[in-house]
Amino acid sequence: MKKLGFFLIANLILVILCFYVFSQEAPPPAGAPTAAPTGAPGMGAAPTMGVIKGKVTDTQTPRANNLEGAEITVESELLLAAEGGKRTVTSDSAGNYEVANLPPGEYAVTVTKKEYDSNTDYVTVTAGGETFHDVRLYKTDTIISYFWKTGPIRWPLLLTSIVGLTYIIERAISLYRLKPKIKVEQFVQRVTDALRAGNVMEAVSICEEAGGPLANVVKAGLLRYSQRVIEEKAVTKDDITEAVDEASLMEIPLYEKNMVVLATVYQTAPMWGLFGTVTGMVRAFTVIALKGNGDPQLLAGGISEALLTTVIGLAIAIPVMIVYQYFLSVIDRSILEIQQVATDIVNTLVVERPSQK
User: Fold this and answer.
1) CB 305: neighbour CB atoms within 10 A?
2) Sequence-separated (6 or more) residues with CB below 8 Å from residue 327
């Protein structure tokens, strides 16, 4: 009996297992849809391509503008070689774009538009998914755009730059015209030779030919010497030196004329820049007080104004200061040259005492 019971129980378990196996492999009922294999074409196939879409706008505040005609280039080794490894689309009038049928993977998305800085980001595409990638382009800055970002201080800075440039040109032309028409070494040699030959009036003619403050100062000394000889009065070094000094007082200011204007320009330009920095920061903190600091774009205008005014003020002051110092060195060298040549001529007159011819 025990063996018979054991046999029946074993057969029952075997029947249950067979019924379970056949029930798992049973065909679906009539009319039931049949699932397509994974990856097979058809309505039920699992999608394998992805999409990148988004909107292109500028950084205008408080409301950005949609950018039409921006070129969106998607690059990746996943794209077919026939496409050159990249695909390009253009944004529509609303700034929207879409790049479809992209294999899953990482792509470099570059957005370009004329008069705007390009933007490149990396975007990951998933199978059957839509990846949204919005882009904000910054307008390319120019000298004019920087000028308009400096706020009301732009006008004093513009006036300062115009005045500085005007007087730099004026001083350059004036200093060039004050140079003698004859080289200094040649001028001194010719005048000295004439004096040693006893021909004072020839030396005066050489001074008139050379022109400029140097020749005028020497000419004053020669004329004083000639006057004393004609009047048959004693010629002293102090007398000739006095004539040279009087002429120098008339000629040297021609070198220093309008230099104070350049000094004022390079000293006041940074002050205007600092003033613009203060007004820009006041504007930024006013925005914070009224609208909070949640959106950095709201603060960009004031901070940009604060920094740009300082930059422009220094950009004006530094070149003007360099040119001013250069002009000073030219003036100092010219004045020293006048003093040295005048002293040599005076000594020649006193020592040689040429006769009047």
Assistant:
1) 24
2) 171, 172, 175, 259, 262
pLDDT tens-digit series, residues 303-350: 777 888 999 999 999 999 999 999 999 999 999 999 888 888 888 877
Question: pLDDT at position 40, please?
Answer: 39
Q: Where are the domains of the chain?
A: 50-137, 141-357
> What gap in Å lies between CA 125 and CA 132, rounded to an integer?
10
Cross-strand bridge partners of residue 57: 66, 136
Question: Is the backbone peptide bond immediately before 62 cis, with ω within 30 degrees of 0?
Answer: yes
Average pLDDT of the segment spanning 217-237: 83
Strand pairing category for 50-58 and 135-137: parallel
Residue whose token pair is 């007159």:
349
User: Is-above-0.90 flag for pTM?
Assistant: no
Burial class for 308, CB neighbours closer than 10 Å (0-12, 13-18, 19+): buried
d(Cα 342, Cα 240) in Å, to the nearest integer? 10
3-state secondary structure (DSSP) of residue 51:
strand
Report H helices in 38-81: none
The CATH superfamily label for domain 50-137 reads Immunoglobulins (2.60.40.10)
% of the chain with per-residue pLDDT over 90: 37
Instruction: Using the structure block, give the residue that is written with the tokens 């950095």.
Output: 296
Number of H helices, E strands in the chain: 9, 8
Q: E strand or H helix at 130, and its extent?
A: strand 130-132
The tokens describing 23, both together, are 């029930």
Q: Is 102 helix (H, G, I), strand (E, B) or coil?
A: strand
CB 251 within 8 Å of CB 207: no
From the list 216, 207, 264, 276, the residue with the least C-alpha distance to 243 is 216
Alpha carbons within 13 angstroms on the beta-carbon side of residue 297 total 9
Q: Which residues fall within 8 angstroms of residue 304, CB to CB, at 6 or more apart?
A: 149, 280
- pLDDT tens figures, 283-296: 777 777 776 665 56
Cα–Cα distance between 354 and 338 in angstroms, integer? 22
Task: Kindly report the backbone phi and psi dihedral angles of residue 98, in degrees, each rounded to the nearest multiple of 5, phi listed first.
Answer: -155, 130
Note the pLDDT of residue 168: 96
